[in-house]
Fold this protein.
Amino acid sequence: MQAKLQLRLRRERKVNRSLPVDIAIFGLLACAGAFMAAPFVFMISTALKPLDEMFLFPPTFIVRNPTLDNFYDLFLIFANSWVPLSRYIFNTFFVAFLGTAGHVVLASMAAYPLAKLKLPGGRFLFTLVVLSLMFASQVTSIPNYLTVSWLGLLNTYWSLIFPAFATSLGLFLMKQFMEQIPDSLMEAAKIDGASEYRIFWNIVMPIVKPAWLTLIIFSFKGLWGTGAGGQGASFIYSEQLKTMDYAFSQILSGGFVRSGPMAAAALIMMVVPVAIFILTQSNVIQTMSTSGMKD
């Protein structure tokens, strides 16, 4: 009887649309998807174009004679360099991995007391965090440089990793998600004898999994592109410690002759963040598990 009642309710809730409306909605979504995928397709096409096809006017969107010569020339350039490409790749992954992991952990641990514990001055501290979101990275580059210099971390990996720990976006995002967790859930855990540490790791963090997976994407993307300017060029002087973004930017010094290798380098820099998003999108876009709970 209960199953029949649920089936009846589902039928009543079903939205009735005509076939033309469904076709119009599908067409609109298809156009929006094609518009968003166009830059990615164009970048792939450009990386596969021979040099003479890159400077055609009007430019072609799809490559006519695809070739892998751009990638071959790119690796040939670094083969003749005294710093191998593998070193730049290691530097980039090391900085991006540690910076992202530290940022997610510290932002989550700082957001938990602001969201769930009655701290004196907590609202004022969170207001400062929100205000810090208004400042561009160029504004904070000099204070970051002075701080890193005072700590004696210049020309080290940590000159890029430590500033990433204190990014205010992660704290803001995690606090907003943690506020949706009902207090009764944590009170029940405390009655069972769970400590704050255990509540944070075993209850809060699994619930806000979509939040910290989204934060991983933003943080990794920002650190992956660090190096060509700003902190990457100012904080690190040794060529053996520089990241791929900085190394690839040096290719532009060759002029339009190296446009092909630069297109290949741009595609390589984009593939990794896109791959991470594809692997985590099922968790990022899912409805938060606490959306139906009430305090």
